[in-house]
Amino acid sequence: MYQRLPDQRIRRFSLDGRKRTWVLPRLAAALEAVPAGTELHVHIEHLDYIDHACMELLSSWEERDEKAGGSLQVEWHELVDRYQRKKNQTAAERPPSHGAAMAAMGRS
């Protein structure tokens, strides 16, 4: 899940997977295994989606680790894009409400 680099204070962590493979308990367990004060590099190149709870967990972990002298290196804008992309796809896949369907057909 995470890999130690030659500098013992630096760890590399890869989030990858399709759909919702990263669930909160799995991510929480992985982050708990990282020693306090670590510089953690999170790679998301192969991550399709992340949910809001996992993003919040990463943010909380970052705040806590910074207090211990560490840091979290992650492309937050890319992470948010992955969250938003799935959120938007899910909304687009929902069938229209009865009122929206009637309006689309020109009936009110």
Task: Write structural notes for this entry.
This protein is of the alpha/beta class. It has one domain. Helix content is 46%, strand content 15%. The chain contains four helices and four strands; from the N terminus they run ββαβαβαα. The protein has helices at 24-32, 52-67, 76-93, 98-104, and strands at 2-4, 10-14, 39-43, 71-73. It has a four-stranded mixed beta sheet with strand order 1-2-3-4. Helix 1 links the parallel strand 2 and strand 3 (39-43). Helix 1 packs parallel to helix 2 (52-67). The longest helix has 18 residues, at 76-93. It starts with a strand and ends with a helix. The mean pLDDT is 78.
Summarize this entry quickly.
The chain has helices at 24-32, 52-67, 76-93, 98-104, and strands spanning 2-4, 10-14, 39-43, 71-73. It is α/β, with parallel strands linked by helices.
Strand and helix map with partners:
Blueprint: E1 2-4, E2 10-14, H1 24-32, E3 39-43, H2 52-67, E4 71-73, H3 76-93, H4 98-104
Helix pairs in contact: 1-2
